[in-house]
Amino acid sequence: MTQTYTEDYRHEDGRTARLTFAEPDGAVRGGLVVLHEAEGVTDTVRLLVSGLAGEGWLAVAPHIVAAGAPLTGQDVLAATDVTLAWLVERGVRADLIGVVGFDTGGTAALVVAASRKLGAAVSVGGHAVSTPASDELPPLVEIAGRLTSPWLGMYGDDGDVAGELAVERLQEAASAAKVATNVVRYPGASHRFDADPAAAAEAWQRTLDWFDAYLR
């Protein structure tokens, strides 16, 4: 397992961020910003960072907010921007940078993909598909049509009709974007894919394939 490290980064313009990252053993294929779940940079997030590094990516998770604190779009974009600067300083080309998020981080990843032009973006699960996550984060169906980065979204519907319809609405909204999009629904799966080993394995492979296709 590739080891993760945490450092306090300060950009030359004064912006700061705490970053947890892992580097591949060989050549760096590109860089991936990993957006964490509501509980912060947990062991699950560290495993994701480590796993992506094992696939050749310089993977880095900014510590956006403290565990349990409300997540705002401004927080997400500010943390992502300074993390992008960190990757560029390490020699990663802008067109080889993507963003990925799991659970609440999946919601954040779509916010970033609709606000920044990156090489690719992936959301694995997440909330607020048709209802806002907070006063500062709009429903994803309202912003999916404005995506500016190629985006893959994977969602479980918990076997619930309302969940199924929400994912279908998101798929329809994303299809209006001027970039490549794909929305995959996992019938009966929880929004936390780590609770469903089969769905988690397939989502992991789809994530890798998406980055392989667009970060090259």
Automatic annotation (TrEMBL):
GO terms for molecular function: hydrolase activity. Residues 22-214 form the Dienelactone hydrolase domain. Gene3D superfamilies: alpha/beta hydrolase. Coiled coil: none annotated. Pfam families: DLH. This is Carboxymethylenebutenolidase. It comes from Prauserella flavalba.
